[in-house]
Amino acid sequence: MDRQDRIMQITEIIQKRKRVSTTDLAHETFCSISTLRRDLIYLEKQGLIRRERGEVILNTFSTVEQNIILREKQHIQEKKSLAKIARDFIGPGMCIYLDSSSTVFQLCELINNIDNLIVVTNGLNVANALAINGNSTLRTFITSGEIQHNSSSVLNSEFENPIINHFNIDIAFCSASGIDQNSVYESNMNQAFSKKSIMDKSQETILLIDKSKFFKKSFFKMNTLTQYKVIISDALPADPISQVVKENNIEWISSDYVKI
């Protein structure tokens, strides 16, 4: 098992157990304490865990965005199913925004055959995928700002992003780190501000979010739930989220169930 797979295994165990001793974690991952320690230091720097008295504890209220390499391997099939539904909202000649999330990234391979599409993105991974595989009529624009290495995002919090003002964005496709009946959350303040700025300029925003994000909060509120007309997920929402969805006529489309 290579390091990336091992870190994914460690992350999954900690997310499931919430708290686990380093001895048990080493036993379950079949690695030495010294190897495990290096991986835990890495995860601690990512803000995903903290270490206390021989235990590893999940940071359930993290302000640090998880590394894109880790996120790309999580819930792959769920993300692909959400992207497949989102593809039906995109047509020739549209101008769309794709955020830098690993969920929205799955749309890249599904829009290659759409003619005269304009894509604006803050995702280096999105821009690169479209540059390599996009058809000859597709035009891709990337926002300006500082590159965030963990997320491969371009974020602009210090000054106005002038390129966005020149586009009439039909639909912004975004994901988030969490959702509850009140708000949609991001773990990174600059990421939240960047997405909100673009969503405010778009005619419509579609949220793609898998069930692992339900009732998961972060410090930064990106928007209220009622500001989304369409939400695409891999499961129907539970109360009280479902109640807010019904009361506000939000179209919730699940890959496993009928839309509500």
From TrEMBL:
Q: Which residues form a coiled coil?
A: none
Q: Which UniProt keywords apply?
A: DNA-binding, Repressor, Transcription, Transcription regulation
GO molecular function terms listed in the Swiss-Prot or TrEMBL record: DNA binding; DNA-binding transcription factor activity
PROSITE patterns xref list: HTH_DEOR_1, HTH_DEOR_2
- Domain HTH deoR-type stretches: 3-58
Report the InterPro entries cross-referenced here: Carb_Metab_HTH_regulators (IPR050313), DeoR-like_C (IPR014036), DeoR_HTH (IPR001034), NagB/RpiA_transferase-like (IPR037171), Tscrpt_reg_HTH_DeoR_CS (IPR018356), WH_DNA-bd_sf (IPR036390)
Which SUPFAM superfamilies does the entry link to? NagB/RpiA/CoA transferase-like, Winged helix' DNA-binding domain
Please indicate which superkingdom the organism of origin belongs to.
Bacteria
Q: Per its database record, what is this protein's job?
A: Repressor of the lactose catabolism operon. Galactose-6-phosphate is the inducer.
The protein's name in its UniProt record:
Lactose phosphotransferase system repressor
| Species annotation | Companilactobacillus heilongjiangensis
